[in-house]
Please model this.
Amino acid sequence: NFNATEIRTFNVTPPSGCGSISASPTLINSVTSNGTCFTITVNNVTLDCDGFSIFYDANGTGEDGVVVSSRTNVTVRNCIIRDINASGAGGVGINFTNTTNSNIINNTIYANGTTNNYGILFTDTADNTAQNNTIQTYTSSTGNSFNAGIALFQTNNSNIINNSISTNGLGSANYGIQLENDVGRNQIMGNIISTN
Model:
């Protein structure tokens, strides 16, 4: 009998700035973007900020901190994610669309703008986890404007666990956790929520 074992080592260069992610980096410095910072373009990766910050939406056009679309087995962890311009609408700290079996863990997220601000947004997703995150959102417009710490749209079989969420602002609706449009079999437990 003959047994062979092959060991390969892959070195991933940490990104020096915002852009597309196609491997599993660990940040070694904070990064800043005029619009969306990171877009994860492959499956089976982890973005570990190691306590460093992602500053996004400097131009105030309502962009996102981290975008994951049509992916599986993605993890975003240990990040401080901050929208640095409150003049735009529709900014999202971490935005998962059509994404499955993925995790958002141990992040601190600050989202703000005129309306439609989300700390974490799940849309058309399943089997994901958001756990041990600290989220603050703020809406600066009055009237029919809103924001949410975590929002689930068309999302199933996901876990929202042990998050600390604070939402406030001048608009008509501030949601801690928002569920809409065909959501089911989600586990929501151990979250601390403050709204104003």
Observations:
- The two ends are 69 Å apart (CA to CA).
- The first strand starts at residue 19 and ends at 21.
- The CA atoms of residues 62 and 138 lie 13 Å apart.
- The chain has a mean pLDDT of 92.
